[in-house]
């Protein structure tokens, strides 16, 4: 076998020398031949495994070069989509807290009305769940979502056991210079059949400086939020009595995500999957707001 191999290699060497001579002489006499001769030369010397492997490599590189051509246009919008909120600072207030605070504070800088610092909020009729729990769950999910879109998020609270008044929550957003803020709440009614989603905004008289943007934010949010959840649209409502609005110098809205007094909505609001739908609606609405 070794004798045969050495004979074979000698033969290959002779052929190679012959081809090399032919190649170089051809190069002198005629120019088109080297391009034809050189592949034969390399194929003869190269082992069969290498030559068979090389076509798959070259074909792979061909598809790679083909796929890389359209990818710059394909990757550009994706990266923009991922960080559409970069540069924005967004405030999120998970409404209420573990224990209400009935101490009083002025409901606005120009108001003589005194209101409780924080109320306890609504409670689910069937599950007994407090809205402050759901509000915080949704707030945390929304924070994650908005950060994934590139926004900086300022939270008034990340735990249940805090004591922050509605005035203090508004001032926290003012000091952080948020671009806009969203107060997350659940609704309640004595009429247990009442259901749906509404958004509260500051009134145009007392809060003229933040009214237009707050209204536009609410208008942007309510459609996508009702669509993603299937909740009834109860509209955008002006409120002049909200401490959290009256002390705000930044555009601000309160989303009343649904009624904990309604058995059907309560059963949805407590589930993570429905909260995800709400968050999806929030994100779509916010993206719509910043585009305009
Ligand atoms: Zn509430």
Would you give an account of this structure?
With 292 residues, the protein is an alpha/beta fold. The protein folds into 2 domains: 2-69, no CATH class; 84-291, Zn-dependent exopeptidases (Aminopeptidase, 3-Layer(aba) Sandwich), CATH 3.40.630. Helices cover 53% and strands 17% of the residues. It has 10 helices and 8 strands. The protein has helices at 2-29, 33-45, 48-68, 71-82, 131-148, 166-176, 208-229, 243-246, 263-269, 272-291; strands at residues 89-94, 101-106, 114-118, 152-155, 180-187, 197-202, 233-239, 252-259. The strands form 2 sheets. A 6-stranded mixed beta sheet has the order 4-1-5-8-6-7, sandwiched between helices. The chain has a two-stranded antiparallel ribbon with strand order 2-3. α1 runs antiparallel to α2 (33-45). Zinc ion (ZN) binds next to loops. Zinc ion binds at residues 95-96, 121, 131, 185.
Which features does this protein show?
single chain; 292 residues; alpha/beta; six-stranded mixed β-sheet; two-stranded antiparallel sheet; 8 strands; 53% helix; disordered N terminus
Give the structure's gist in a few sentences:
By secondary structure, this protein is α/β, with parallel strands linked by helices. The chain is 53% helix and 17% strand. The protein folds into two domains: 68 residues, no CATH class; 208 residues, Zn-dependent exopeptidases (Aminopeptidase).
């Amino acid at each position: 076998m070794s004798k045969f191999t050495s004979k074979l290699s000698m033969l290959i060497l002779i052929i190679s020398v012959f081809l090399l001579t032919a190649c170089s002489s051809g190069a002198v006499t005629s120019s088109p031949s080297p391009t034809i001769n050189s592949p034969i030369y390399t194929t003869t010397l190269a082992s069969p495994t290498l030559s068979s492997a090389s076509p798959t490599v070259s074909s792979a590189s061909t598809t790679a070069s083909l796929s890389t051509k359209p990818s710059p246009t394909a990757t550009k919008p994706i990266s923009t989509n991922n960080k559409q909120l970069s540069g924005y600072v967004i405030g999120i207030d998970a409404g209420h807290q573990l224990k209400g605070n009935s101490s009083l504070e002025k409901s606005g800088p120009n108001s003589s009305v005194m209101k409780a610092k924080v109320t306890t909020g609504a409670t689910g009729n069937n599950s007994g769940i407090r809205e402050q729990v759901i509000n915080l769950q949704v707030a945390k999910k929304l924070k994650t979502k908005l950060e994934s879109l590139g926004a900086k998020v300022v939270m008034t609270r990340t735990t249940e056991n805090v004591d922050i008044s509605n005035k203090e929550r508004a001032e926290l957003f003012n000091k952080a210079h948020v671009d806009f803020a969203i107060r997350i709440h659940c609704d309640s009614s004595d009429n247990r059949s009442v259901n749906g989603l509404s958004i509260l905004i500051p009134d145009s008289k007392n809060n003229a400086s933040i009214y237009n943007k707050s209204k536009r934010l609410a208008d942007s949010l309510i459609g996508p939020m009702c669509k993603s959840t299937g909740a009834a649209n109860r509209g955008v409502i002006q409120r002049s009595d909200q401490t959290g609005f009256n002390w705000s110098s930044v555009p601000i809205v309160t989303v009343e995500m649904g009624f904990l007094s309604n058995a059907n909505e309560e059963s949805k609001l407590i589930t993570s999957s429905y909260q995800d739908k709400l968050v999806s609606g929030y994100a779509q609405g916010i993206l719509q707001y910043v585009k305009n």
